[in-house]
Every structure is written in C-alpha cells, then in structure tokens.
Design a protein that fits this description.
Elements: H1 11-15, E1 18-21, E2 30-36, H2 39-45, H3 56-59, H4 63-81, H5 83-93, E3 97-102, H6 113-133, E4 138-142, H7 149-162, E5 167-170, H8 185-194, E6 197-200, H9 216-219, H10 221-235, H11 238-241, E7 246-249, H12 261-269, H13 281-285, E8 289-291, H14 297-307, E9 312-313, H15 327-332, H16 339-354, E10 356-359
Parallel strand pairs: 1-10, 2-3, 3-4, 4-5, 5-6, 6-7, 7-8, 8-9
Helix pairs in contact: 2-6, 6-7, 7-8
C-alpha cells in the first residue's frame, strides 16, 4: 500500500491524485462498474413498511426468477460485503483499482426523504471505510437521496468534500421521473461544479409487464432503461446546460450507445427533438463514457468506432451473475485495437475520470 487515509482525515492527501501499484497484467486496470451491499442501510429501511427500492427486476419477475434471485443473493453476500474476498477476486481478474458503488437495489428512492438521507449516509460511510481500508485499491462513488433533490445536493457535497469520493452513482429514473426533469437541475449543477463523475446504473425497466419471463426484466430491462435515461439526458438538454458533466453509462450505454443515427435523424426532421439542444444528439453522446459490459468483442469494437477508445472504460458488474470477469483479456483480445487504445480502455480513461495516478512497481 502506498498510503492510507481515513475518511475524515488527511484532507490534503485525499485531494491529491491517488497513486496505486500496477499488478501482474500488462495494463493498469480500473473497474468502474462494481457493487457493494451495506446491511446497515437495510436495517434502517426496515423502519418503514413502505418499499424502499424500486427493484423492478424482482417486483415484476415470475416466481421462478424471484426464487433464483433469493438463492443468488445468499451466495453473493460475502462478495458484496467482504473486503478480503473482494481483493482476492480483483487479483484474479487482474484489476488494480475498483471504483466501488452501492448495489442498485439499495438506491432507496421510494423511502421518505429523511429516511432516504439516512440510508444514503449509511451506505456512503461504508463505502468510505472500504476506500480507506486499502487506499491503493479502492476509490468510491457515493449514493444520494434523489427523491429529495435538495438533500441529494447536500449529500453529494458531503461525499466529495468530507469523504474524498470521486463522484456518485445514480439510477436511470427516480420513481418513474426522468433525469431531465427540472427538479434535478441543482444536483447536476453541483456535480459539474465539484467535478463529480456520474455513474448511471439501472434497476430494470419501469414498465415490465411484458418482461416477466426469461429474466427479461434484467436482460432487456436494464439496458432499455439506460437507453431511455440517456435519451432524456441528451434531448432534455442536461449536457447542453452542463457541458462539463461526466457521465459513465453502465452496460455499454444500453442500446443507445450502438444506435445514435436514428436520434440524429429525428433531430433533423422533428421540431420537438431540438426544444432543448442546439446540436445533433450525437454531439452530446460523445461527451458520455461507456463501460465494456457488452459481452462480445464485436460490440466493443462498435462502441470504440462510434465514440472513440478514449470514451470506453472497463466494467465488470461485480459480483453479480450478469457480470463479466475476464475484463482485461476481453479488451486485449480485440485485434483491431492498438496497444495505446487497449491501455486507455483497461485503465487509463478511468484513471483520468477518477483522478487516480498509476505507478508501476520498481
């Protein structure tokens, strides 16, 4: 370990770029899509009878899927909570640094605002503990109570200024409200001001009546909700008003990351498609970063061709069964990419976004 820093101490050290030791693989590797579960937040959420999480995957799944999800959660508990297990798995995957963020099942956006603030704080304190325990292996992305935007702004400030976080993870909608809604404007303005990275991650699709079979609430629902969210962010002018915002979209940006031409065509022919933007949608899409959770090298090549190797980062979705756990080899095996492009995707791009400074062993 190159240095340690408690969550509320070493302010100067936290503010500086972190230096981490490169491990066995050829490239410095950063995982920007990996999750933590915080049992203390579950206990807080039990104080109300109101469902705390908009978990569409479980709510609209058939009984077979629901049963499997319960069994899977029991199997994943250690990976979601144990730092030692996480480090061992990172070494197996060739990952030098994880940017840890909460499980999307712990967004708790449906809770009353005060309880939402408390659950967010409990999760953020746990993420801070993990980041401080191995400061050369972890940085953190916080969670905020989006059901109360003014509280979300305060929690983001706390995460960035007091805990030394690198940004926040947010859902693709807030109880059905899209992220381009004006109530979130102050949060995006604060994120832009603070230089907070925004990791966009779904929890299934909001209307899943036709997706109850075959785990489609996740298989199709997750990338579909990301697609809708990004479309609202772009067409709704979020990136027009806040051009310095940095979004990372999970699962390769859903379907939108692979099909921008239809958006640009709509912008040319439909008046309602440029109410809030002054340039074609693809101009704003080029500001977004996409993770490698696309499962085929052809899809990864397509992402790079559309958006550039400098806008793609590694994501594993650790530790879930829908994740991908050979992330470095996945990128390295794409023959069309240069070594420089591969190094950027594997870790260089994420290091810049997260303000990490890699350093090799001597």
């Amino acid at each position: 370990m190159l240095f340690t820093c408690g969550p509320r101490s070493c302010a100067a050290t936290r503010a500086a770029a972190r230096k981490v030791v490169r491990r066995g693989n050829k490239s410095f590797a950063v995982d920007l899509h990996c999750h933590v579960h915080t049992p203390a937040a579950d206990e807080l959420a039990k104080k109300t009878d109101k469902p705390g999480s908009a978990d569409w995957t479980a709510r609209y799944a058939n009984p077979r899927t629901q049963d499997h999800q319960l069994k899977l959660r029991a199997q994943l508990d250690r990976k979601l909570t144990s730092v030692e297990q996480r480090l061992a798995d990172m070494d197996k995957m060739g990952i030098d640094v994880q940017a840890v963020s909460t499980s999307p099942l712990q967004y708790y956006y449906a809770l009353d605002p005060d309880l939402g603030r408390l659950t967010s704080r409990a999760i953020n304190e746990r993420l801070a503990e993990i980041a401080a325990s191995h400061a050369d292996r972890f940085v953190a992305l916080g969670t905020v109570p989006l059901q109360a935007p003014e509280l979300a702004v305060a929690e983001l400030e706390y995460c960035m200024k007091e805990l030394g976080f690198r940004g926040m993870e947010i859902g693709t909608n807030v109880n059905g409200t899209d992220l381009s809604d004006g109530r979130f404007e102050a949060l995006f303005a604060k994120a832009e001001q603070l230089g907070a990275l925004i990791f966009l991650h779904p929890t299934g699709f909001t209307d899943t009546r036709r997706l109850t079979q075959h785990f489609l609430t996740n298989v199709i629902g997750n990338p579909l909700d990301t697609t809708v969210a990004l479309a609202h962010i772009v067409f709704g002018g979020v990136l027009e008003r806040h051009p310095r915002l940095k979004f990372v979209a999970a699962h390769g940006g859903g379907y939108l990351g692979h099909y921008p031409a239809r958006m640009d065509h709509a912008y040319r022919v439909r008046p309602e498609c440029h109410d809030h933007i002054k340039r074609p949608p693809s101009f704003y899409m080029k500001k977004i970063y996409f993770d490698t959770m696309v499962f085929s090298r052809e899809q990864l090549e397509h992402l790079v061709k559309l958006w550039g190797a400098d806008h793609v980062v590694i994501g594993t979705d650790y530790p879930y069964d829908m994740g991908y756990y050979e992330p470095v080899d996945f990128v390295d095996d794409v023959k069309s990419l240069t070594r420089t492009q591969k190094d950027a995707i594997i870790g260089g791009n994420a290091a810049k976004l997260l303000k990490i400074k890699p350093r090799s062993r001597r």
